[in-house]
């Protein structure tokens, strides 16, 4: 089963809620976040199966140019007093263009080239809204603060979210030729200032947008971390390439893919090679007095933090440590450390920038049509080995196989 993806995993909130060292208001906030996580867990499940059913029924049928673009967003922007006349004019133009695309059904395969050419003439809209500290999902996205192409706003979080979404979108297009989250230039919507001192960020499959809390005395700066934004947007990309169920090994792979593409976007922004990078996810989200370096370490799963208020990082880095558990939807945030370590080992073995070889292999795996919704670690490992040989050569395949062998997924090399 699937759910909304939160950058802060449930086991971390559970540890915060149970630690007597945390103030009562922090423990209660953690409990509320944990309850919300469980309450909305069916949303991604429903969306994943809907996507799969649509793909099955539309193989030989007509499809829309972009199934995710919210026309209402552009309609609001075209009439908003919060932007200047030039911005409203652009919104009206884009709305007409969008409605034209939606009205022209494309035949899969025959018109694929024409659809790609149309997409190449547009740019994905990156719009950031202010949720004004509401807890009500139905009030999202909130008040528009910065639309695509506009100058910086007065709100620092708005600008950080806008800039980092831009970095991630450019990363996908530059290295994989992929436009926005669906390869059809769907708008990317973000809402900042969600809730009161809400210490989390998440991708909402119901509203197709990112949502950021302001943080609290332990967790903060979600808008300022490009790897966090890259992680969350990658869940939407996964839905549009090889939708993975969000439980057990498939769910851990879903989390893994998001960590992989989030960390690569971060490494590009920081211009770091695989050897130079720290391979930390969310390193700027922990406050200085926390005994830890990040939410997760792809290089050393299980060693990202060890704080009395948080507990110890529960991630594992070997398939020998995998077990069937009930919490965290089968341990999707715990066992993702296993494939994370495999990708890290592959990238370092190839050398250079992570997206040059290892990233291309993982991207091909997600787009080759061989990844099933309930994919296992073994299946995914085999697919990456095959893709390595198809894209590069036998030696590349051996390096990838060696990485999976090191974490215990593939036996023998």
TrEMBL record:
Entry-linked Gene3D superfamilies: 3.10.170.10, Neutral Protease Domain 2 (1.10.390.10)
Entry's family note: Belongs to the peptidase M4 family.
GO molecular function annotations of the record: metal ion binding; metalloendopeptidase activity
Pfam families: Peptidase_M4, Peptidase_M4_C, PLN_propep
Domain named Protealysin N-terminal propeptide: residues: 68-106
Keyword Metal-binding set for record: yes
Record keywords, A-Z: Hydrolase, Metal-binding, Metalloprotease, Protease, Zinc
Entries under PANTHER family matching the protein: NEUTRAL METALLOPROTEINASE (PTHR43579:SF1), PTHR43579
The Peptidase M4 domain, residue ranges: 122-239
Annotated Peptidase M4 C-terminal domain residues: 243-409
Gene Ontology process terms (BP): proteolysis
Lineage: Eukaryota, Fungi, Dikarya, Ascomycota, Pezizomycotina
InterPro entries for the chain: Metalloprotease_M4, Peptidase_M4, Peptidase_M4/M1_CTD_sf, Peptidase_M4_C_domain, Peptidase_M4_domain, Protealysin_N_PP
Name of this protein: Predicted protein
SUPFAM superfamilies (alphabetical): Metalloproteases ('zincins'), catalytic domain (SSF55486)
